[in-house]
Amino acid sequence: MVEDHKPGLAAPLFGKVIGDIDPERRLTVLDLGNVRSGTVALFSTFRCRLDIANLPDILPLPVDQDDPDVRHTALASVLSFHQPEPLDLILCWNLLNYLERTDISHLISLLAPRFKPATRVHALMEYASPLMPATPGAWVPDANAKLHASQVDEEQVDSPRYKPKEMERLMPQLKPERTVLLGNGLQEFLFTPRPAPAVESS
Amino acid sequence: MSDQQNRGAIIGPSIQIDGTLKGDEDLLIQGKVDGTVELKKNSVTIGESGEVKADIFAHTVIVEGQVEGKIVGSEQVVMRKTAKIRGTLIAPRVMLEDGARFNGTIDMDPEAEAIKSAFSGQSSKPAHSQPSTASTSPSKQEGHSAAKTERG
Asked: Which of B79, B96, B111 to mutate to test the interface with A (most CBs of A within 10 A)?
């Protein structure tokens, strides 16, 4: 594992998310990753509730030929520990590329009951490079909302390189607000919930 | 040795307490506590060997060991790098050292209902602790001194 000592990565969509926060309003954030000092410090400047899911702790998801639901059960377990308060922001940094396609869809379906119209999902994914670290590292924000890589695995594996259109298909509850290809090859996504289809009256 | 270990009460590593702990001085827990810890005007430190399964209400809570339950700090909660916490942490200011393990929810909203209800009627100013020259094990305390243990 190596630490990143470079200047922070400017992630414009994350910077916009932080800049848009109303400091007077209570904010509920779910970080699907592990708890990091920078995340706590950044959100402690707001009236914030921060749920920590520790998704990396269960990756790679278990495989059991006799129990095809074991992966979904594992995903549900990391989300079962939080009160079902509607979420303003979900942080999903460098995690989706460690999930199979069906796991991504199941994860979002588990989160969907906590969506509200203004919920935003901010995701970072390896995209440009055909390789990615064998295990998910962490991205840690600083006070300026720049991101720093932490605990990067030097061993590499093939990256699934999910394309934005494929992400839309896997997460039908969400629509992309914007995507940005960052200088280091990461794709930055900002999703919002799709409006519920209007009910036709006869 | 931290400053905490030189003042207030200490629950030593061999001590296990089941029930409610209340008091008016700072407390260092190096042993095992199951139940509730209420030192609303003082600081509670869960030392590296401390194992607490309890709801903790204190002015300041510093965690170096293991806690399972709800931690409510009217002023601040600090998670040291050796901390392992599972539960809900509620305080207007939270400080975390990388390396700490946390599973649950951190509520840093000073308007959070849990803080208001737990500390209603109390000043948010730091309370003065009553330093003692010697650390006192709860098992040796008498009368009105320090940490009071109510068996549940």
From this structure: B96
